[in-house]
Amino acid sequence: MTVAGLAAEQRRAFARDGVVWPVEVLSSAEAADIVREIEAIERTYGGTLNAFLNVKPHLLVPLLWHLVNDPRIVEPIASLLGPDLCCLGSSLIDKPAGSRSHVAWHQDATFWGLSRPVAATAWLALTPSTRESGCVQALPGTHGYQRAHEHSDDATNMLGARERVSAPLDLSPAVDITLAPGEMSIHHPLLMHGSMPNTATRRRAGFAIRYIPSDVVQENGTVTSIRGRTPPAGVMHLEQEPEGLLHADALRRHAGIVRRSAAVIRGQKRRHLDAVARGRLAGDRRAEATGR
Predict the structure, then answer these.
(1) What is the tens place of the pLDDT at every residue in 120-174?
(2) N or C end of the chain: smaller count of CB under 10 Å?
(3) Are 200 and 99 a contacting pair, CB within 8 Å?
(4) Closest alpha carbon to 69 in 207, 188, 204, 234
(5) For residue 208, which of 289, 287, 119, 130 has the smallest C-alpha distance?
C-alpha cells in the first residue's frame, strides 16, 4: 500500500503557520483499539503508565513502537523534514475527565538542545480532542524564533520541566486544534502552544511523537532510527525495538535512556534560564532559529 505525504497546500500551511491539521492517519476503530490496549496495560501495571515509563514508551510497548514507525504517520512527516528521519521522543498525553491538568504555553524545542531547531511533533488523537476536553491550542505564525521561558513551579502544568513562556501573550489569535480519534496535527518545535484542563466527561488521550531529520543532533541524546540514513556513527546512541511488553531487557535499556534524556533536559534548562537571566535571549533570533 502506498501512503501519501502532505499535499502542497498542507506543506505551505506548515511553513506559514507552524502547524497543520487535521491529517487523517487511523480509522476511529483503530484509535479505539489502541485505547483499549493502553487501558489493558494500565490495569495490569498499576492503573497508569507512570511518568518514568511514559518517557519514550515506544521503547517498552510494541504497539507504540509500531505506531511511531507507521507509514501513515511517517510519510507526512517526511514530506516536511526529508527522507532521513529519527524519533527523538514520544509520550502518551492523558487528561482524565475533570482533571485540572493543563499545558502551559511553550515551545517544544526550548530544552531539547538540538543542533538546529528543525523537527516536527505529530500529535495523534486517540479520543476526541475538543475545546471542552482541553485540545491543543496554538498561536499560528509564532514559530520564527526562540522565546524566553521560565520555571512555572505549577504542579498542574503537565510539561516535564514545568516550563512556560515568560512574556505575557496576546491569546486572541489562538486557534483550537480540534481532532477526531485517528486524526493528527503536526507542529513546528518553535510553535507557541498549550492546552486547558479537560472539562469533558471522558478522558482526552493522545500520543505525541517528536521527529527530527537524521542530521540534526542532540548532544548526548538517543534516538530511534525511523527511515533512511542514520545519524553519523558515535553522534547519538540508537535505540532498539522492545522484545515484548515491558520486557526486562527493554526496561533495563530504557532506564539508562531516561537518565540520559533527563540529563540533557536539565542541562539545557540551566543554559536557557541562565541566558534569560543574563539578557542573552532577546527574542529576535529569527534567522538562526528557523534555519531560513
Answers:
(1) 999 999 999 999 999 999 999 999 999 999 998 888 898 888 899 998 999 999 9
(2) N
(3) no
(4) 207
(5) 119
Q: Which amino acid is at 262?
A: A
The CA distances from residue 89 to 41, 134, 211, 213, 274, in Å, are: 20, 22, 7, 13, 25
CA 145/CA 147 separation, integer angstroms: 6
* Nearest in space to 137 (alpha carbons), one of 101, 168, 106, 180: 106
Q: How far apart are CA 62 and CA 136, in angstroms?
A: 26
**Which residues constitute the domain of residue 85?**
8-240+248-290
226: Cα within 13 Å, side-chain hemisphere: 31
- Please give the distance of CA 129 from its chain centroid, rounded to a whole number: 16
Q: pLDDT tens digits, residue range 75-121? A: 999 999 999 999 999 999 999 999 899 999 999 999 999 999 999 99
pTM reported for the whole predicted model: 0.93
Cβ distance 156 to 100 under 8 Å? yes
The answer for residues whose C-beta is within 8 angstroms of residue 105's C-beta and 6 or more apart is 139, 164, 165, 169, 192, 193, 194
Please state the domain count of the chain: 1
**What pLDDT shows up at residue 173?**
96
115: which 3 cell numbers?
543542533
Residue 210: CATH number of its domain: 2.60.120.620
Residue 217 resides in a domain: yes
Using a 10 angstrom Cβ sphere, with 0-12 exposed, 13-18 middle and 19 or more buried, the burial of residue 173 is: exposed
